[in-house]
Amino acid sequence: MALAQGREPLYASSVVDTDFDFIRETDRSVLDTVAFVEKGPAEMPDKVATQELFQPAYQFRATYKDSVKVDFYVSERAGTQSVAQNYVDLAAIRLGRIPHVLRKGVNRVVINEGDATAFSDIGLIVLYTKNMGKRISTHDLEETIFHESVHATWDKDHAEAPGWTGAQRNDPGFLTNYGRSHPKGEDLAETALFAVTMVHHPDRLPADVKARVQAQVPARLEYIRKLFPAGTDWHGPAGKL
Ligand SMILES: [Zn+2]
């Protein structure tokens, strides 16, 4: 069945490109430690380069106070070990600001040299060094990591689930053109940032914006609300932190 196309999306490109600061640099991060493990060949998925999958990489392990552990791999081409560590620190602390329910599905973060945009797969987020710098300068790297973590953690069970595709059909339109162009691949990740913010940080969005989002994608908001309900601790089960 064709998806509802009646209303134009609210946002021309993607949610990450909006001016709202959904997740802030001042938000608490539950990053605990980052430790260097070794330097050696690792799987380095790269959507730009045509090189071998296994590349020399600086390898780190980050631990979070909600018991999540994430392996970080930085391309040797990024520079010295301390340069690599700096990229890991920048990404790892931000991964500690997104909700536990999303962080817990991220096993691996790969950081390649270059300015391509981030991408992801189940359990995996891939970032690019120069693009990280750009996103940090516009306060968007938290949102990028949130978006990719939805792919890493929720896509497998939800992006094509009957409940979600039914919600897509029932809603009047899409939030973003990016979601409309990729209803199976991007719409959940695009919508989740708004949905989670509206439940857990409603003060961060203007009232008129919330009203328009609610009117545009009510069934999708309801679906995502069930994945991370109001009253659930942002950083995971109480007592573990
Ligand atoms: Zn995406």
The counted number of beta strands is 6
Structure classification: alpha/beta
Please name the CATH topology of the largest domain. Zincin-like
Q: Helix count?
A: 10
What is the CATH architecture annotation of the largest domain?
2-Layer Sandwich
Radius of gyration: 18 Å
Summarize the amount of helix as a percent range.
Answer: 25-40%
Q: End-to-end distance, in Å? A: 45 Å
What portion of the residues fall into strands of 2 or more residues? 15-25%
Small molecules in complex: zinc ion
How is the main sheet built?
Answer: 6 strands, mixed
How would you describe what is shown here?
The longest helix has 15 residues, at 81-95. Helix content is 39%, strand content 18%. The protein contains ten helices and six strands, in the order βββααβββαααααααα. The protein is globular, with a radius of gyration of 18 Å. The mean pLDDT is 93. It starts with 30 loop residues before the first strand and ends in a 14-residue tail after the last helix. It has 241 residues and is of the alpha/beta class. Strands 1-2-3-4-6-5 form a six-stranded mixed sheet. Helix 4 (141-153) packs across helix 8, helix 6 runs antiparallel to helix 10 and helix 8 crosses helix 10 (218-227). The chain has two domains: 15-22 and 158-227, no CATH class; 31-153, Zincin-like (2-Layer Sandwich). Bound molecules: zinc ion (ZN). Zinc ion (ZN) binds at residues 147, 151, 186, 189. Zinc ion (ZN) binds next to helix 4.
